[in-house]
Each structure stands twice: as C-alpha cells, then as structure tokens.
TrEMBL record:
Annotated ranges, domain ABC3 transporter permease C-terminal: 246-370, 705-818
Family statement: Belongs to the ABC-4 integral membrane protein family.
Name of the molecule in the record: ABC transporter permease
Transmembrane segments: 242-267, 294-316, 336-363, 390-408, 420-443, 473-493, 704-723, 744-768, 788-811
Source organism (scientific name): Streptomyces prasinosporus
InterPro entries membership: ABC3_permease_C, Macrolide_Exporter_MacB
One protein family per Pfam: FtsX
Biological classification of the source: Bacteria, Bacillati, Actinomycetota, Actinomycetes, Kitasatosporales
Keyword annotations from UniProtKB, A to Z: Cell membrane, Membrane, Transmembrane, Transmembrane helix
Amino acid sequence: MIRVAFQTLRARWVSFLGTVVALVLGVAQVAAMGLLVTTAFDLPDRPVERFADAPAVVRPDSSGWDPAHHDLGVRSPEAARGLSTGLRDRVAATGRTVVDRTFYAQLRGGSEDQVGHPWPVAAFGGYRLTDGSAPAGDRQVVVPSGQARTGDEVTVLTASGVREYTVSGTVAPVGYEDAVFFSEAEAARLSPRIDSLVALGPAAAVEDAVGDRADVLTGQDRHKADASEAEDRETLDNTITLVPVMASVAGTTAVFVVASTFAFAVVQRRREVALLRAVGATPRQVRKMVRNEALLVGTAAAAVGTVLGLYGAQLLADMLISMDVSPEWFTVTPSLHWTVLAPLAAAFLVGLLVSVGGAAAAARRAGSVQPIEALREAAVDDTGVTRGRALLGAAALLGGVGWTAWIATGSPVTVLSPTVYVVSLMVPVLAAAVLAPLVVGPLTRLLMWPWRRAAGPTAMLVRESALTARRRTAATAAPVLLTVGLAFSLLAATDSLGAARDSGLQNRVVADYALAPDGTPGISAEVVDRVAEVPGVKIAAPLLTTVYWKDEDRYDENDGLVVDTEALKRTMDLKVVEGSLDDLDENSMAVADLWHMDLGSTQTVLMADGSTARLKVAAVYEALRGEDVAYLPPRFAGTAAYARDGLARRAYITLDPGTDRDAATAAIRKAVAGSGATFMTRDELVASESAYARHLNEVRQRSTAVIIMLFCFIAILNTLLMATADRRRDLAVLRTAGATPKQVLRFFLAESLLVSAIGVVLALAATAVNLAGLWGALLQLFGTTPIVVPYAVVAGVALVSTLLAVVGTVLPVGAALRARAVQLIGARE
C-alpha cells in the first residue's frame, strides 16, 4: 500500500497541504525551542572580566550551595559572610594580596546598577587611569571618564547614606560594569565584608594557605567571581523556564491541528476510499494506506521543519532577548555538537510521531468506510453522532470543567505559577475543540436564526451546507477556536491576576504614603532618618535580609524583613492566623503560614553575617507564595548589608493625628530631594509595585500567546485554503444551477463567516470556563476581585482570525471562478 499512498499524495496533494504546513511549523517550533534549551545548558565559556589580569582569586567556598535550588539573588551563607580576616592574613603571608569588596555606590544621576570597589583591585579588571591619580584619602574617588572630571565634587549614594566626594582621577569605561573606586579604608567602612582576595604569591603556597577554607580560582574559573555569572544565570533560568512551556503549548496545538487536518482529509476522500473498498481493498489495507500517507507526509514535513527550526532558533532567541528574558549575547549557532543534533533529532521524531499518531483516528475512520458509499452522488459527511464520538465529547466536557473546578476549589495556588497555569488553560479550549463536531448543528441553527427569513437562497444554502458537512465545518472552525480561545484565556488570566495582586497589596498596605527608589535599587538608612525627623511623621523601612535553616547537609533560605514591631503594625495589615504581633520582641519573629512552623516553637537560624540566633515564633500570618517573609526585630538590621546591599526596598509613612498634612508632605519631599528616593501615595506605590512584580509573568504568558497566535493564524489560512480548494464540485453545481460568480463568491464568503463565528462562540465558551475557575481561585487567594478582560486585544485577534478565514476562502474560489471562465471561453472558440 506504500505505492498507493505515494500515488494518492501526488494526485491529492491539496488535501494534505494543511497537514504539511501545520506539521512543518510544529516541528520547526519544537526544534527551535529545543535548541534554545540545550544551548542554555551548554554555554560557551564567557571571558573573565574583573580578574582577567589576576593570577589567582580566593573566594568563599560555596560548594554545598547549588544556585539552581535557591532564589535568584540570594547569596550562600559563606558568600554572605565573606572571607575571614584570619584567612586574609594567611594568604597575605604567601605574597602580595589585594582585598576586593563589592557594594552599592552610585553617583547621583548615575546608572542604577553602579557598584563600588577599593581602588587597588581596579588594575586586575583592565581599568587604567586616563586622568588624575588614585584616591589618596577617604573623601576621594575615581570614576569612569564622561561621568565627571578630575577635581569635581560629586555626590555618591551608598547604603549608609549620601556623601560628597572629590574626583581624584578618571578611568576609561569597561563594558562589563559601571564602577566607582574608593580608598581601601573607605571601602572597608562602607562594606566590611571581604568578597574575595587577589593572591599574587606562588600558586602552591596560596593553595596550602587556603586549604579547604575557601576556593582558589585560576584560569577560566576566575569568571565565577564576576557579577555577570549570576546575572547570566538569572536570565538563562528565565529562558529555561519559559521555553518548555511555550514548546508544550505550541506542540499540543500542533498535534491537534495535524490530527484535525488528517481527519478532514479522510472526510474529503470518503468516496475515493469507498471505491478502493469496492475494488477489493480490505479495511486493514485502507488503514495501512492512510498510515503510510501519514508516514510519507510526516517524514517530508519533519525534515523541512527541522531545517526551518535550525535556522529559525536565533529568531526566537532574538524575540526573547528583545523582551529581556534572555541575555543579549545568547546565540544559537548551527554545528555538529550534541546540543544541536539532539534537539533536531528529537524534533524530527516528534514530527513522525505526531503525523502517525494524528492519523490514527483518521485511519480507523477510513477503514470503516463501506463500498456502497462509492455510489452516492451527494458528498456529505456522516452526520450521525457515533458512540465513540459521544463518549469522547463527554470525557472532554467532564475533563475541561472538572480540571478547572479543581483549580478553583482544590488548588487555587496553581494560578500563581505561570508555567503550570498556562498549560492548564489549554484543557477547556482543547475540550471545546473535541466537542465541536457535536455542537456544530445546534450552533449553526442558532447563528443562522436571524436570517431564516432572508430573501434569496444564500442563507439557506449556507445553513444546509454547514449542517450536511459537520465534520468539515468543525475542522475548519478548530483553528479559529484555538486561536481566539487560547489568546483570550491567556491574556485575560494575566490581566486578572495582575489586578488581583494589586488589590491584595493595596489591602495589605495601610500607610497613606510611601517612599520608593527613584533610579536607585533602594533607600539608604540616612534618608529614612531624615524623614523620621519631620514632626508628626512615622516611617517604617523594612530592610531585606536572609535567614538560613540547616536541613541535614544543605541550607534552606528565606527572605527576612527587619522592621520595628510598632512600625509594622502601623503600616501593614498582615492577616495573622495564630499568635499576635503584640508578642514580638527582640528574640522572636513572625513567619508565614506556608512555612508550617508551630506557634511558640523556637527556631535556630543562621543570619547572613554568620551569627546564629534562636528565635521564637510569636505570630503566624497568611501569605501567598512569593510574599512569604520572616519579620525580624531591629537588632538584625546589620545583617542586611551582608545578605543584599543594606538598602530598604520600600518605606511606609503615616502621619500622627492632627499633623498638618500639607506641611508634612512638603517637608518629606524636601528631605528626600536628590537622595535617590521618591515620595508617593499608597495608590502610586501599588501601581509601581505591581508593574515590577508582573513583568516576568506577563512576558511569559504574552510571549506564549504570541507564539500560539502566529501558529494558529497560519493554520486558519492554510486549513480554509485546503477546504475550499477541494470544493470545486460544489462550485460547479452552483454555477450549473444558474448562480452568478458574484453569488458564488457571496455564498462561500458567508460560509467562511459562519465557520469563524462557530469557532469564536466555542472559544468564548471555553474561555468562560477558564475565567470561572480563575475567579474562584482568586476569590480564595485575594478575596473579591474583578476579572479583567482585554476586550480590544481579544476583538482584534477574533477579527484577524475572521479575515484570514475569509482570505483562505476567497482566494481559491476566485481562482476557480477565473479558471472556469477561461474554460468556457475556450469552449466557445
């Protein structure tokens, strides 16, 4: 039957055009995304930056700390604590040793990611003086040329406060960082932690002096001490997290489209298959023929899709780079390396499996065609609902509604995980696609009801055409359903979840005003003290730190906020479920319910500065994932400079009763002027917080929606082209019956609009199920919250889908009408 299958493909290539295009695009997507993932796991060595001219770098030993198992930006306990002065002295005994420190230091008006270092370490990173001299005193700095000139007075923002310095010299900028250099003594005052040591003594002596107390980095390993190492890991983690989700969603969509177009191709060839049965072909041979067709189509399409994915992977990488998901240097280069060959081979095999698997149902249907059907003149679908189809439809309905109900009631936190929830949103949409053939009849009658008394035969013909070809109608409506349903569900879920988080934050913050960073990563303690001096003003500025719990041979970490208890109660409305914030003292803490710590229990915690504390759980509050922190007493404020940068991310302000509001707010604005902080209301704070928190989630979900829509738009156009091009008989019948070309075109145009309307209605039904589940989940997590629907975007997607359906219909019909006109002219001549 392989020869018959090959001949069939040659003779009926139009019938398989939709399948080929869908499969090529699906395989290309899988190949491109697989290349991105494998490339991210096996990156080329990045050049050493800050220590390119250093023979050896000693840094804390964090061998027991796998960054992939911890939150981004969190230091290991060893890295937070830094190197000890004793180890510094041991290394110094082997030869010249330079202490390196990295801390927050930003010129007023400078870049937000600007850092400070002691001057002696500059030489190892390629810095060279272009003017002036090294800093000779505590009030002198060296800055990149172009930001100030030698002799200028500059304002430098640090975690300890805002201070004036004199520029003693300038250096040529480097590409990997923006740094301000201080004298060794001033750098030690600003940052007591020793981040690393540059050892210039004999390598063997340095190794012996360090022993197992720290790591000694040489060669390419010195890049591990660069800040870009952690930054690259963060962006690549985003890539590795996002791409598999996009691949699974796109792959599932491709499987469905391929299966649908294969089934449609069999429906179109029903009489042809019946003729084979009439001349003696057995059902088994017919099934084998269809499977062989799928194998031939799959092999060719998978090969083309693999090549397309190989050269399209960089386009996908460029899209992720433009959305700040992947690093700018991230590239995919064709080669014979396993990171290229493995995903390409996997994509090719996926294409074959999708092709053969997608044709399985079509093969069974083809095998059930009876020889007598070859004698039928009317090429109509079998409009009866088979038991298998009814069972499959019922299972799809129960699965879609049941899954959504489970999320709404049993696992509402699922909506907070974009990678899981994106896939969950597909279930009701795919269920609606499975149900489509069962509901085409009722939907057709409902949508055509307003035109039941329309003059002329067009409305009646469109209605009866859809009713007598339900499988064709369902197959051509499926891409519209997938496009509108998935885009609508993804975008509405993203916007609704963002609005719910905004509402939750607004309810949690009870302070009327706040301070937020203004072009800086945080707010210094000096700025907080200035505001606190304003009469009638109370300010709470939680300092972000890290607390560690030892779990057997590894550490678990959690964020901690150091804040005064009275200030916490005055500015935040925590939902305390056990204990009371009134019980907080210098030896206790408040923890999130997600941590499952018993009220009154005593926990031994390791702080970022290396100290150990035993703290009693005085209160347990309700929190969402990502918002769970330990509220710690003020005595741990010093640990913030070790854990992060010693800056407060936000500060909350309340006014005492009777305070002149206008005078107080004016004094606050004056106090923070030029300090890298901005004064705002609570509503403005919520807006800025939500914009920051939602960025990555929106990028993930919207980029997935873009991939889906691009794929489905092509599927709509290609499926309608395939369906309409194969209906020359219908066109001929209409022309023979006396229909003018304009009437024929109007009929097909109206039919394509009906098909699009059916797809949109089913998409709206599936989206309604998704949004009902989302509303139930958000109700449990945040209380009453609105469902936000991006009407304009969804309407645009539906409109584009409809236009593509119309184009996919008009093009082949117009071509057929022109061809028939030419034939008639030739006959007359």
